[in-house]
Specification:
The complex is a heterodimer of chains A (115) and B (111). Chain A contains no helices and 11 strands. With 115 residues, chain A is an all-beta fold. At the A-B interface, strand 10 of A face strand 4, strand 5 and strand 9 of B.
């Protein structure tokens, strides 16, 4: 298996809802990432997990809560989001980050709309 | 702070023509990546450039890296409509802490 999968593909939620995004990879990668991408802009790094531990949090608001239950799975829990949080959320993985940033492989993304 | 600049940001070209996209970065790095993104889709890895003078080619695309000039180029040869997409370069800091993306080049190839 040489891909990163993400579910759901699309998500519409109200500002009071709680939802979760899921990302999975079975390539044995030990680093996983969450990015946010607004239209016509580059991806913005949100979180990095390395060996299932949170290693980078780019000052993301607490309404976004990441979780890495095991080396293959990465979740992003969403609560009390704002309309400006509407974006494409991309998950990526790479073999390791101990010797620098290895090539990152991106999932198909979740298109999130907050009403 | 690492800064990455791509130019042009918008490129409209005719089929059959050649063109080059430039990616300049501000601090030392020896890892540079090129990605392609189609509208509403994810990022597809095109090239990984890991050393000074690295050159890689795939089909009508060729990427090169000059770490001394802190410059990478993505050259398009005899463009075809299927190459229409947004192309991002991304540079890794030598400390290995993160990737910094350029703003992207939106390429449109017209028949």
């Amino acid at each position: 298996d040489t891909e990163v999968t993400q579910t759901p593909k699309h998500l519409v939620m109200g500002m009071t809802n709680k939802k979760s995004l899921k990302c999975e990879q079975h390539m044995g990668h030990r680093a996983m990432y969450w990015y946010k991408q607004k239209a016509k802009k580059p991806p913005e790094l949100m979180f990095v997990y390395s060996y299932e531990k949170l290693s980078i949090n780019e000052s993301v608001p607490s309404r976004f809560s990441p979780e890495c239950p095991n080396s293959s799975l990465l979740n992003l829990h969403l609560h009390a989001l704002q309309p400006e949080d509407s974006a494409l959320y991309l998950c990526a993985s790479s073999p390791t980050r101990t010797s620098g940033w290895d090539e990152q492989f991106f999932g198909p993304g979740t298109r999130l709309t907050v009403l | 702070e690492l800064k990455v600049e791509q130019n042009p940001l918008f490129l409209s070209m005719q089929e059959g023509k050649n063109y080059t996209i430039y990616c300049n970065y501000s601090t030392t790095s020896d890892r540079l990546y090129w990605y392609r993104q189609d509208p509403g889709k994810s990022l597809e890895s095109l090239f990984v450039l890991l050393s000074n003078g690295a050159v890689k080619q795939e089909g009508r695309l060729m990427a090169s890296l000059d770490t001394k000039a802190r410059l990478s180029t993505l050259h398009i040869t005899a463009a075809v409509h299927d190459l229409s997409a947004t192309y991002f370069c991304a540079v890794a800091e030598t400390s290995g802490s993160r990737l910094t993306f350029g703003e992207g080049t939106q390429l449109t190839v017209n028949p």
